[in-house]
Amino acid sequence: MSKDDFPLIGLWGKRSLVFNFALMNIKIRYKGTYLGLFWTALEPLLLFVLLYVVFTGIRTSNKEDFAIYLLIGIILHHTFARGTQGGMMSLRENISILSSINIKRELFPVTTTVTASLLLLVEVAVFLGFMPFVEFIPEATIILLPIVLFLLFFLILGVSYFLSVINAFTRDVQPLWGIIVMALFFITPIFWYIDEASGILLDIHNINPLGQLVEIAHKVIFGEIPHIDDWLYVSAWIFGIFFVGKMVFNKLEKNILEKM
Amino acid sequence: MDSLILENVSKIFDSIKSKGKFGPDKNKVLPKKNDKFVALENISFRVPQGEIFGIIGNNGSGKTTLLRTIAGIYHQNQGKITINGRMAPLLNIGTGFNAELVAKENIVLSGMLSGLSKSKIKSKVDEILEFSELKEFENMKLKHYSSGMRARLAFATAIQINPDILLVDEILSVGDYSFRKKSYAAFYAFKKNKKTILYVSHNLDAMAKLCDRILLLRHGKMIMLGNPKEVIEKHKEIIGDEDISKN
Predict the structure, then answer these.
(1) ipTM of this model?
(2) 3-state secondary structure of A187
(3) CA within 20 to 30 Å of A123's CA: A43, A82, A101, A107, which one?
């Protein structure tokens, strides 16, 4: 086993490259737009307005602070969607680099994950700035939110390891993943509450790491300290995906250039 | 000392013929066991330090595959490659160049991808723009550059990496006469500093002048290795034979 077999460690020496690459990605993403980085905040906010109008329209009894509940879920899901979709394309979009220099291929999914995480920080700042508008004062437990973001980083990276190499072999994963990301929006407690759920939805929720993570985020924002078992359960899922993802990546990455 | 030693290097691709309208860009039908494409077969040679080593051959003879295998981008199926020194491949026009970024941003990104630190490549930006004669276009997005301008920028960036071994794949041909002259001068300066260059090109006249030795590849096999004039002669002879047999 060399240090390159482990995730991230082999890239430590290239961290400056990763961050510069990630910043360039953000720059390129918003080139040619008038609103630029503002779009990062606008995308989830517009989705939020739409869903808020729809759900407060069809629900008879609204829970308190539904706006805050909804917005954080949208932001976390949106980041997951953006991060994994970027990760999925990360090797394919950089074929020209891969075919002209010998570079650690892990660089690409890591870079897209860092890009998504930087944008997440912008969105979280918007989220915090949004609170006064709905007269919401968070509980002190919100200081645990960074742990949630930290876990989300590893979830996105773990999934990106998988998707990036599989996408190199077959593009079928692209439409499939689009469907899965959409499905995740519905089976994750973003616009519904756990105590409303039952049957198969609850069963699915129990094995959905993104759903577990969103639930923890809700708890810390609304003043509840999640039980240690909740943390351990979601961490086991996420780091399981992360390490298995890297193992699959290591196994498949050698021949990807010839397959693309 | 030898900069580069290849011993019996072979590279075999799975058949990459595309069948059917749909499906990925490879076989939908499972490849048969013997459905392989031998891109390189038993390549062995040594390149001493400070040599300009040319590689010629028709399209599809394995030149680029050979450079990529040496660069570690492809993994050889068989054989051994020994490299002594830091190597910089210059195989595409502008590694990591992005059309939406301006010249300076591209230089920094490309340099960092090639292993230079950010401060190091930043300090070289002016020199690179100077060499590539693109100072007045430094704030122009790369998508508005001509292919010649891109090639100049790419070459100027790559030589700043200052490797011990430089692999160059037919990228100078897009530059104009004066830039090519400058590039060849850079090659000679490299050589003087005891650096090694592997150079692939179709420009046989330039190759004859520039290279110390030339390798002729054909269908992945070594046909001849030695004196530039003799190898080029042989190359022309083979092409000539083919033309006649076609008629």
Answers:
(1) 0.75
(2) helix
(3) A107
What is residue B19's predicted lDDT score, i.e. its pLDDT?
47
Residue A1 lies in a domain: no
Task: Tally the domains of chain A.
Answer: 1
Q: Which letter does DSSP use for residue B222 in this model?
A: E
Q: Which of B73, B98, B112 sits opposite A17 (nearest CB)?
A: B112
The packing angle between helices A173-187 and A66-89, to 10°, is 170
Mutate to test the interface with B, among A96, A100, A253 (most CBs of B within 10 A): A100
Nearest to B157 by CA among B228, B92, B209, B222: B92
Domain ranges, residue A187: 8-259
B117 interaction partners in chain A (CB closer than 8 Å): 16
* Helix A228-252 with A209-221: angle, nearest 10 deg: 140
| Cβ separation B73–A258 shorter than 8 A | no
d(CA A149, CA A161): 18
State pLDDT tens for residues B37-63: 888 999 999 999 999 999 999 888 889
Taking an 8 Å cut-off on Cβ atoms, the answer to whether A16 and B105 are in contact is: no
At A219-238, the pLDDT tens digits run 999 988 999 999 999 999 99
Residue B209 distance to chain A (closest CA, Å): 27
Complete domains list, chain B, with CATH: 2-86+164-246 (3.40.50.300), 94-162 (1.10.8)
User: Are A99 and B91 a contacting pair at CB < 8 A?
Assistant: yes
- The whole-number pLDDT of residue A138 equals 87
Q: Each residue of B105-140: pLDDT tens digit?
A: 888 888 888 888 888 888 989 989 988 888 888 888
Task: Take residue A9 and report the two structure tokens written for it.
Answer: 């460690």
Report the gap between the CA of A29 and the closest CA in chain B (Å).
Answer: 10
